[in-house]
Amino acid sequence: MRMVNTCSIPIKTTLNQEEEVDAEVTWEDQQKINSFSKLNAKYSDLEETYNAKKQEKEFLDDLTSELELADKVELIKYKIGESFINIPAEQAIERIEKDKEILIQDLEQLKHNMDDMTDQMRQLKAHLYGKFGKAINLEKD
Question: Secretion signal: which residues (predicted)?
Answer without folding.
Answer: none
